[in-house]
Queue: 3 jobs
Job 1
Amino acid sequence: MAALFLAGPLRHAPLLAVILGKAATLSPATAAGRSGQLVDAPGHFGLLRKASGRVEGSALRDATPEDMARLAFYAKAIGLGRYKLSLIDAAGGGQAETFALRPPFAKGQVWDEAVWLADHAALAVETAVEVMALYGQTPPACLSARIGPMMVRAASRLRAQADQAPAAVRRGPGQVTVQSRRQPYANFFAVEEYDLSFRRFDGAMSPVITRAAFVSADAVTVLPYDPQRDRVLLVEQMRAGPFSRGDANPWQLEAIAGRIDPGETPEDCARREAVEEAGLSLGALLPVAAYYPSPGAKTEFIYSYVALTDLPDGVAGVFGVEGEAEDIRGHLLGFDQAMALVGSGEVQNAPLLLTLLWLQRERTRLRS
C-alpha cells in the first residue's frame, strides 16, 4: 500500500485519533511543489500546485484497510478529495495518497498551523466526534449534505463544556455511563438516543435506561428597548412548532432570535440577527439569563438579552434573510402595551415572557 501523506488538520493528533479510533504513529514528511491553503472558517485544507512550494506534513506508512476506510469516510463527509502526490520522508519518499480539497476552490490564506490550532482545531475535533459516531451507519454523502448543522451542534457542545454554571445546591457533575448511542434522524436538527445509566443519589448506579433528546444549536434572543421612549420592538413570524402542534395561529410574537454560528459569540449573534430581522444597530447588551428552555427533551441552550436601542417612530418594518425564506414583521410597542400582551396570553413563547418580566423588574433603573 502506498504511504499516506497527512497535512493540515489531518496531521493534528487529537483529530486523527478520533477519525481512526486510535492513536497513530506518524513520521515527518514533505510534499514538494505544493502550497497549503486554509480555505474557510471550518478549517478546510487545500493543496495548490506551486513549483517552489513545500508543505510540511506527516507520513502514515502502516495504515490498515480499516484506517483507510475510516479516513475515506471522514474525508467524503467533510468534502475532501483523495488523490496522489510525491512525498519526501525518512523512508525515502515516493508516491503517496492524500486527502484535501480538490481544486478548483476559492483560495484562502496560506496555511498557518498556529492559526488553525487557535481558531479551528477544537471545532474540527468535536465535529469529527459526531461524524465518526455514524461510521458504518450513514453514507458519508448524506453527512456531507448536513455538515454545516453538525458543526453548529459541535460548537454548542464546546460552549457547554466551557461554560459550567454553579452547583451550590444541586450535585456537581455526576457519573453517566453510555452503553450505546444512536442518531435515528439528522438534518438541520437531529434526534439522538442513548442507552445509559447514571449515579443515583443513594450512590448506586441506575439500571440501563433509554433516553432521547432533540438536538439543536445554542441560540440567542434579544429584545430592543428604548428607555427614553419606554418602548420595545417585537418581531412576528410563522413558526413550525405551533403549526406542528396543531395551533390554528402559528404566527408568534417574539424577541429577535437566531442560532449561534461556529466562531460567533452570543453577543456577535445578537447584533447580527438584529440587523437581519429588524434592520437595527443595537446599543449595550444586558444579559437576562442563560438557560435550557426544555431540558427534559431538548439540548437547546438560550442566551437572552435586552439591548438598549434607539427606537424612533417608523423603525419597524418587514425584514428577513431571503435565502432562508424569512418573513419577519416588526412591532413597535410601548412597554405597558407589551406587558398587556403578556397578561392577555398573546405572548406565548418562553424567552420573550422571561425577558419582558426581567425588563419589568429592571425598567425603573434603566430609565433613570
Job 2
Amino acid sequence: MISETALTQPIGPNAFGHLIHSSGPASDAMWLNLYQHDRAAVPSQSPRWGQAVAAAGNYRCNPQDFHFADGSHAVLPLFTRGVASLRYAWSPPPAWGFGGLLSDEEISPDKLRSVLAHLETLPYVGVKVRPNPLKEHVWAEAMRPGWASIPRLAHVIDLTGGFEAVKARFRSNAGTNIRRAQKYGVEVEAGNSDRLIDEFHGLLELSFVRWARKQHEPAALARFRGLRRDPRSKFATMAANLGEGFRLYVARLGGRPVAAILVLMHHQAHYTRGAIDEGLAGESRATYLLQATAIEEACRLGSTHYHMGETGNSASLAQFKSRFGAIAIPYAEYRYERVPLASIDSFARSTVKRVVGFRDAS
C-alpha cells in the first residue's frame, strides 16, 4: 500500500469526546478486516480500490485508524495529493466513488464528530468526504462548525427479498423496455476482460462527444476532460485490483457493442459508469436490459443495496432510475478548508464555462 509518513497522534478522551486514539495510517490488514465485516461498505472503500486510486490517479493513500473509548474501531480511507503544506485530502478523490468510515459497529454522530475534529488537525489545506448516501443521517447530525455541505442526490435500490421481489417493484414501463430489448435481440456479456474494457471505453469516448453537444462545449475540450478523468488505463487498473468485484456489462446488437455499464460488487453494489452509442441503442432500450442483468447479479451475490450513483438535478435520469424501484436519497459531500480553494476553483470553472457558452445538460 502506498501511504504517507505516519501521523501518529494519541488523543486524550477529553480532547474529542469518544475518540481516544488515532494511530495514523491504518494497516492493510486492519482496513481489509473492517471492509469485509462492515455490511454497509461499498466497493470504493476497499483496500484494493485504494491501491487502484493510488496507482491510476496519482494519489497517496493514507487510511486513518481510529479507536474509541468503548473499544470499537474505525478506518477512514483517505487520499492526498500535493506537496508539503499544500496537500489536499479526499475520501475518496473526485470520480472515484463513495468514501467515509468503515467500522466494526454502527458509528454514532458523537463518534463521527470526534473523527471530524481530528481531521481538522491534520496538516492539509482541505479535506473533502463523500460518504455513502445511506449514511447521510449520521453525517448530517455529526457536522461541526467550519465544515461546508455540498448538496447531492443519489438513487438507491433496496435488494431485500432477492431479484424476484426486486423485479416485482420495477415499474411497468421498465418491464416493457426490458422485453423490448430482448425482442430486438440485444445480448449482454458480463466480465472484466481487456476486450470488454476496450468496448466499454470506446462507447465512453462516444459519450464524451454526445455530452459536449448537449452542453454546448467544444468536442475537443470535452474529450480532453473525459480522457483526463477516465483514461482506459484507469479501468484496467480497477479491474486488475478488484478482480471479480469489477463487472462490466456490455450490450450488443448483431455483435456490435451499443451500450455498457460498470458496476462494482460487494455487500453493496455500485453502478458507477455508463456509456452508449445513442444512435444504435436508443430504439432497442438496451440500457434497461443492462441494468436488469446487473441488478439480478447483485442479488445473486448477496448485495443488500444497488447504488445507481449521482443523479444531480436531471429529471430524466431520476425517472430512469426510479423505474427500477430506486429511491431518491438526498445527501451531502462535506468539505473543510483552511484556504478557500473550492471558491477559487468554482470561480475559475464558471469563467471558463461562460467563455465557451457551456450549458448544463440536466
Job 3
Amino acid sequence: MSTCYLNGTYQPLAEARVSPMDRGFLFGDGAYEVIPVYSRRPFRLAEHLARLERTLEALRLPNPYRLDEWAGIVHEIVARNTWSDQSIYLQVTRGADTRRNHAFPIGVQPTVFLMSEALVTPPADQLANGVAAVSAADFRWLRCDLKTTALLANCLLRQMAIDHGCAETVLFRDGFLTEGSASNIFIVRDGVLLAPPKSHLMLPGITYDVVLELAAKHGVAHEVRDILKDEVRTADEVWMTSSTKEVLAITSLDDRLIGDGRPGPVGRQMLAWYQDFKKTVMRGG
C-alpha cells in the first residue's frame, strides 16, 4: 500500500481524507506539481518547487513550506514508497472553510497533499512507431502558465483523444500552436527544431527545457517562435514531451500521416540523447 503525506502526517493513501468543504474540492482552488523520480532521485526538484512558488504567488495562496521543507517531504515520500522510479504528485489547496463562498477565506490553513505512483514511460512499440493525435481549438483560460488543479478543460481535451483512439490532443489558439492537453509539442521542419515560446498560453514544461538544452548542447538548429497551424500539419516531424512521455513522436495527426508516418531522424536522435541524459544526469550514473 502506498504512503502519502497529508497536512503533516505520513499515512496509507487509502486512509487519507480531506474535508468536503476544502476549496480544492469545491472550486479547484489550488496548485500542483508532478515530479519524476529516477533511481530515487527527484529530477530538477528546485525547478519544480520554483514553478510551484510562481503558481502559488499568482493564486495569492501562501506557500505553506520553505523550499528546504518541501525537499525534505518529497525525499521522505520517495523513501517510504517501494518504486525505484516514481511520479510524485504534490498539491496545495487554499484549505477548508466553514461555508461555500467564492471570496478567499481568512485564517484558513492550506491543505497539503503528496502521493507517489510508479513512473510509467512509453513502451518500446510506441517509441519505435510513434502515436496518433487529434487536434482541437484551445478553449482553456488565459493563464495556462499556472499549474492549477482546475483541469476540467484539459480533461475534456484529453478525453477527445481517447475517444478517437489517440494518445494526445494538439491544441491551437487563433491559428497558432500552443501545446498538448497534457504535454508540450515540438515540430521539425527542414531539419530545424521549432518550439512555441513560453507565454501565458502554455505551461512552461521542465522536459521542454531539457529538450532545448540538449538541442543547444548537440548543435541542433532550433528556434523558439510562434508556430502556425499549417506549419504543424505540414511538418516533417511532430513530438510530444512531458516527464512521463519523455520524447514521443506523433506520427499521425487527424488521421493524416506526419512525414512518412514513422518517427523521424531528429526525434530518434533526441530520444537517444534524452535517454543518455536520463542515465547520466537524472540517475546520477
